[in-house]
Amino acid sequence: MRAADRVLVVMAKAPRAGRVKTRLSNEYPATVVVELYRCLLQDTLALAASIADTEVAVMAPPEDLEELAALLPAGVIGTPQRGTGLADALSSVFEAFTADRQRRVVAFNSDSPHLPPTVLDDAFAVLLTHDLVAGPTDDGGYYLVGATAPHANLFDPSPLGTSGALAALLANARSKQLTYALTRDWFDVDLASDLARLAEALGRDPSAAPRTAAYLRSWPERDRSQAPRASGSDPA
């Protein structure tokens, strides 16, 4: 497979209250969470666009595509998922982008824009020699998953969003006799503690996600009581 046969698919939703980062809404005003998600998504799309020789697409619920279109860079395709929920969305990625021909396809979440670009290149490299690649998060989930073909029932909806999500994915892969490898551990932004960790990381290197970094810098000016505060004990 050639380098041009690489597709990076960002999993996205329209930035609306009650639809995105719902666990953060328990800690912060809904309007703030929506704008934060918009920044995370735009930085993620910029990261995706920086990966050479790679087609970029977005997978989203059909009802969200019109609203998302205004946020997508030129040349980025919005593709409707089938079904509902993340398991259906992930299955839709590999059905849509590997059904016609074999390609290396990586599905990437929309809230890890600070990921080093080399990790995405590494994920595509894994797919030259393995059936599956996953990027572990330190809460037991995964921030990316890649394959070269669709695999029925690979994504079990029940553990997604829990600390058993990655373990369930790998168990399903083994049951199907798929070869797999893992990329670097990373973190996404689901909880207030994750957001504090991101704020700390972007305080050191705002270029990793400039829109999100600028938004987090302005947050204390709007409402200091609601600003994410980094903990010195969290790793970078």
Defining key terms:
globular, disordered C terminus, Spore Coat Polysaccharide Biosynthesis Protein SpsA, Chain A, single chain, 7-stranded mixed sheet, 236 residues, 2 domains, alpha/beta, 7 helices
Question: Radius of gyration in whole Å, from Cα?
Answer: 17 Å
What is the SS-derived class?
alpha/beta
The CATH homologous superfamily of the largest domain is named Spore Coat Polysaccharide Biosynthesis Protein SpsA, Chain A
Q: How would a crystallographer describe the biggest sheet? A: 7 strands, mixed
In CATH terms, what is the architecture of the largest domain?
Alpha-Beta Complex
Residue runs with pLDDT of under 50 for 5 or more positions: 230-236
CATH uppermost class of the largest domain: Alpha Beta
> Helix amount, in percent?
25-40%
Outline type: globular
**What fraction strand?**
5-15%
Strand order of the largest sheet: 3-2-1-4-6-5-7
Number of domains: 2
SSE order in H/E notation?
EHEHEHEHEEHEHH
CATH topology of the largest domain: Spore Coat Polysaccharide Biosynthesis Protein SpsA, Chain A
